[in-house]
Design goal:
Radius of gyration: 40 Å
Distance between the termini: 93 Å
Number of helices: 8
Strand order of the largest sheet: 18-20-21-19
Number of strands: 21
């Protein structure tokens, strides 16, 4: 079994008046750090307990039984926790078949209130499940039976006694701990008890609320005539921050106030659109009847040439540069124009490929033409000056005897009648 020995909750101040702990096989004291404060030395110690015990499966009881071999304790999970290094955060079981299972909620007495908040799966539950997935046992029936028994034992545990323990509790909830888009439903929900005069509700009565636009993303629409279940404060937009205006509150609705989204069908070859001219297609079931979703680039250009009605499919939103931007993927057209549009698109692709080949061929001919002209110019210059750079011996002195005859100083001299041997920039 694994626990967290590096917690700050069990650090103790070793006073000079306290007695030295007796040596025993159950617990030992180990000095891990020391510090001085106000001229007095203080030592921090942590108690190390027994973090390993055994579990045996009894066929007669159809359950796993814990056994502490050091103390002879059988079927007392609470005692195994008390003897372990505190606080107990992770308790893992390792089976002979190589499987690993998390049994923390079986042994941790404060699983509902404190232990869950200290674990990684409280922040990244998917990561923890994916980590343990390769070590999952192959005996699914026995594992499922044990999970049901563990969940039943959690329901039998007593209710928390402080307000802070109710926060994020998996079974109970207080209204003060509800998030912005959460509410108690129904309003006449049964009250399980009171904590300092505040009603305690079951966690099953806590439901998430969303605005109409958010429910559309889940392929659901608010029924006509439904009153908002709650009003929440809206997030200010950039123009509200500049003007100092307060945005109006947002009306939110619960799942029980919505119904399955039904898109209007296509009529007379026209695709139904929203107020922005697009088709909201967050889920495949939101496709309007009589239409198809074609995820092929460039179809809208071909459809305009053939005068076929089509609309872009908006599949989601992307937030960047401080704003939310729609994400489009393909187009939506009527079913009767699908074959015509695909055939025209294939012809368009062949024509585009042919034009690209012609451009590539013209570019290659142009490059060869430039290369040929350059070689001809080089040959003409070599014939004009009866030498080339390759013919100059490496040890020959190439220094100029009279610098006044070289460019650009020779620009001030009067041009001679014979200037055929000069370059164009020397004739300026």
């Amino acid at each position: 079994m694994i626990s967290d020995p590096e917690s700050d909750e069990d650090w103790m101040e070793d006073k000079s008046t306290s007695k030295c702990p007796k040596s025993s096989a159950t617990k030992r004291s180990k000095i891990t750090a020391s510090e001085s404060k106000e001229g007095k030395e203080k030592k921090k110690v942590i108690s190390v307990g027994t973090d390993v015990w055994v579990e045996v499966y009894l066929e007669s009881l159809q359950k796993w039984v814990s056994i502490d071999c050091l103390r002879g304790v059988i079927n007392h999970p609470e005692k195994c926790e008390s003897y372990a290094t505190q606080p107990v955060i992770y308790i893992m079981s390792f089976s002979t078949d190589g499987s690993i299972k998390d049994l923390t909620k079986k042994y941790a007495s404060k699983w509902m209130t404190q232990t869950r908040k200290l674990r990684i799966d409280n922040i990244k539950p998917k990561w923890w499940l994916a980590t343990l997935k390769p070590f999952k046992t192959e005996n699914g029936d026995k594992n499922e039976t044990e999970d049901q028994l563990l969940n039943a034992n959690l329901l039998n545990k007593p209710m928390p006694t402080s307000v802070s323990e109710f926060k994020n509790h998996p079974l109970y909830a207080l209204k003060r701990h509800l998030l912005k888009f959460e509410a108690i439903y129904p309003k006449t929900a049964e009250i399980l008890g009171y904590c300092r005069g505040e009603a305690i509700y079951s966690r099953d009565c806590v439901h998430e609320l969303h605005a109409k636009e958010t429910w559309i993303k889940e392929a659901r629409s608010v029924r006509i005539g439904e009153e908002p279940y709650k009003f929440v404060k809206a997030r200010p937009k950039p123009h509200h921050k500049k003007t100092g205006e307060t945005p109006p509150p947002v009306a939110v609705y619960g799942h029980w106030q919505t119904e399955k989204f039904m898109a209007p069908p296509a009529v007379d070859g026209k695709v139904p659109r929203n107020e922005h001219g697009n088709v909201e297609l967050y889920k495949p079931e939101m496709l309007p009847p009589g239409t198809v979703h074609l995820q092929i680039p460039g179809l809208n250009k071909v459809a305009r040439k053939l005068d076929i009605d089509c609309a872009q499919a908006m599949v989601g939103w992307d937030f960047h540069c401080g704003y939310s931007h729609p994400v489009f993927d393909g187009v939506v057209v009527c079913e009767e124009f699908q074959e015509i549009l695909l055939d025209a698109w294939q012809k368009e692709q062949l024509e585009t490929e042919r034009k690209n080949d012609e451009k590539r061929e013209l570019r290659a001919l142009k490059n060869w033409r430039q290369l040929t002209k350059g070689l001809l110019i080089r040959e003409r210059l070599n014939r004009r000056f009866q030498s080339s750079y390759e013919d100059i011996p490496p040890n020959q002195d190439e220094s100029v005897s009279d610098v006044t005859m070289a460019f650009p100083l020779n620009r001030d001299m009067k041009h001679s009648k014979d200037s055929t041997h000069l370059f164009p920039f020397e004739k300026l």
